[in-house]
Amino acid sequence: MTLELFFHPLSSYSHKALVALYEGAIPFEPRLLEDPDSEVWKRFRSLWPIGKFPTLRIEAEDRTIPEATIIIEFLAERYPAAAHLIPADPDLARQTRLRDRFFDLYVMGSMQRIMDHARSAPDATDPVGVRMAEERLATAYDMIARELADGRPWIMGDGFTMADCAAAASLFYADRAFSFTATHPDVAAYLDRLKARPSYARALKEAEPYFGLLPK
Hints:
With 216 residues, the chain is α+β, with helices and mostly antiparallel strands. The chain has helices spanning 12-23, 39-47, 68-78, 90-119, 127-148, 162-177, 185-196, 198-207; strands at residues 4-7, 29-32, 55-58, 63-66. The chain has a four-stranded mixed β-sheet with strand order 2-1-3-4, sandwiched between helices.
């Protein structure tokens, strides 16, 4: 069974899926979405017209799996080496999914609001929206710091899970958008551990050539 991943190396949600694939040492064929006029992009849009990535394709099963969280759910179910990403205990699994949603909605979403504003034309300002995003990030950082205050290495405790896949990409970019390094040392230390994790270190290394495209 061949897996194809349609993604961009700079995409935060692509990072989330890549971490899961690398955690499980799961082979896949990369389909880079760089040129909207390319055949790869056209095929991607035919498979998932919404046009959001990452998207996983299993041609042999005629199966298309969009959304990073759903991709990870699929990998954890199909591949024993990725099963640890979602705990077997139902309560722990539910808590993991909650934290996955937390990082996606409140950290990633707020970060993207600030990044989108930075990319916009000089006369396209949204100071109210940016201030609200910064306030939400500040609240999220406080909540994450409280969870990490007991010294746990990962957000669910000793085990690296899907929630950490979400945390890696969201915190990496959020620190650029509204830095927590000076204000939340426990969160900064957590991000350092995430960046040192071989799976995320690999995704970041692959993204390096594209960092110049990020807004200042």
